Amino acid sequence: MIGFPDKENAVIHQHFRYVAALTLLPAALLLTPSVASAATATPPVTASGTSPFATCTLGAAPGAVNYPNAEVEPWVAVNPTNPRNIIDVWQQDRWSDGGSHGLVAGYSTNGGKTWNETAQPFSACAGGPARYDRASDPWVSIGPDGTAYSVSISFQGVGSDNAVLASTSTDGGATWTAPKALIEDLGTSQFFNDKESVTADPNTPGTAYAVWDRLVSPTDNPRSAAHAAAYTGPTYFSKTTDGGKSWSPATAIVPTAQNQQTIGNQIVVDPRNGTLYNVFDLILGTGKNGVDQLHGTNVAYTKSTDGGTTWTAPQVIAQLNTVGVTDPNTGAAVRTGDIIPEPAIDPATGQLYVVWQDSRFNGGHYDEVAISTSADGGATWSAPAQVNTPHGAPAFTPSVRVANGTVGVTYYDFRSLAAGNTSTLPTDYWFTSLPAGGVSFGNETHLYGPFDMMTAPNARGFFTGDYQGLAAIGAQFGSLSVRANSGSTDNRTDAVFTRVTP
């Protein structure tokens, strides 16, 4: 049954089953086996501290459970003017039914060895707009002048008001400006803005691009309840050219028909020519997707060569064959990045990469990590290839970046779970890479774990985030992820930072 699972992720978040055979797109680059050495990683450093919202009681809703001191869903960016300055963002004090007390930024001035943190003004708990007592979907990106751009989905625990808000920092993440509203929907439950991201233009100081999906449900006509599945969810876009002081009017750049939507929109920019690529999940409940009579979830993209003024029609890269993630022994739900593709671009060559969760490598039994790449600006894409080393267990929530020509991917998996263990859910975090000149991902590097996923907040499943952070730091990678503190009920999770050298 179609429904809206929680307020900050009001999407058609069901796992489609497929009866049609996959139609493969032309291969731009084949990814086949080769040998590579394992990377080295620093021990994980805790980037998050005690919640700054410990005394805040706002945002409560009937039946909702709050998890104090729990950090989830992190993102990370490195300052191009000073790579020792790294900014992290995450949800702080997660609610079981969506969002958190607020968003927090961690910032380091010594390359991630130590961290400070500050609340971002996106919710009432953090001194933001009083009407918004919850915030979600943290994101940060830093421009070539060192200006950091951060965005939030801000909304009400009880009530329908919601917005995409943006704030900036010019001091390395220590302080943030009062937020600007990129879009606000007030006094109606017909619209919900979701899964926003922001990308600073790598070449143009003061310019950044924000994208999100805007779910549109039926009107409040009393008869519309009988047509609750009549939704649509186009991609919206807004741009700043003055360092976040103002943003362009929100505009739909990927129109969708009834029973269609996008989610997980992210822009990457080719620094060689300024082309914008927006990668997302195209959810098709009805109608053709332009490749075949396929439906369900699809990895797709659209691009702009004029700074976001005009965009191509969506092109499907591959079907996204997620079956979701559950505890293999108990069947308990684990909420992951199952419908969120993650893109990256090689700034030197413009080669595009996208990773996502997919069950195609094991006959549709459980999710693993897939990748596709394009060397010709998205005109053609390689057949999906497997990233993780198979271990007969789910691998999930991948992140991808390119550092000095090396493609790095991080992900969780359940390989440490023993048959018959129903009291804990051991989870590990891994890194693997595709070396420059290589054709396949090499040996995995264990970043940390196992930790007990059952300790994580329960938000429609054990939850560390719909995405995790990964950034290039010269020839290295900086990983920001959430690790559960096994067995702790007063500090269930922390955001941890690790540097990886391929």
Give structural notes.
This protein is mostly beta strands and 502 residues long. The protein contains no helices and 33 strands. Strands 1, 2, 31, 32 and 33 form a five-stranded antiparallel beta sheet that branches. The chain has a five-stranded mixed beta sheet with strand order 13-16-17-18-19, with no helix packed on it. Its EC number is 3.2.1.18. It is an enzyme of class 3 (hydrolase). Residues 1-38 form the signal peptide.
Counted beta strands:
33
Give the CA-CA distance, first to last residue. 45 Å
Structural class: mainly beta
Low-confidence stretches: 1-5, 10-35, 221-227, 288-293
Beta fraction? 35-45%
Describe the largest sheet.
5 strands, antiparallel
Number of helices: 0
Radius of gyration: 21 Å
Approximate helicity band: under 10%
- Taking all residues together, what is the mean pLDDT? 91
Molecular shape: globular
Question: What's the topology here?
Answer:
Layout: E1 40-41, E2 45-46, E3 66-78, E4 86-95, E5 100-108, E6 116-119, E7 134-142, E8 148-155, E9 162-169, E10 180-185, E11 191-200, E12 208-216, E13 232-233, E14 235-240, E15 251-254, E16 260-269, E17 276-284, E18 296-304, E19 315-319, E20 325-326, E21 333-335, E22 342-345, E23 352-358, E24 368-374, E25 385-386, E26 395-403, E27 406-413, E28 426-434, E29 445-452, E30 462-463, E31 469-473, E32 476-484, E33 493-501
Parallel strand pairs: 13-16, 21-30
Antiparallel strand pairs: 1-33, 2-33, 3-4, 4-5, 5-6, 7-8, 8-9, 9-10, 11-12, 12-14, 14-15, 16-17, 17-18, 18-19, 20-21, 22-23, 23-24, 24-25, 26-27, 27-28, 28-29, 31-32, 32-33
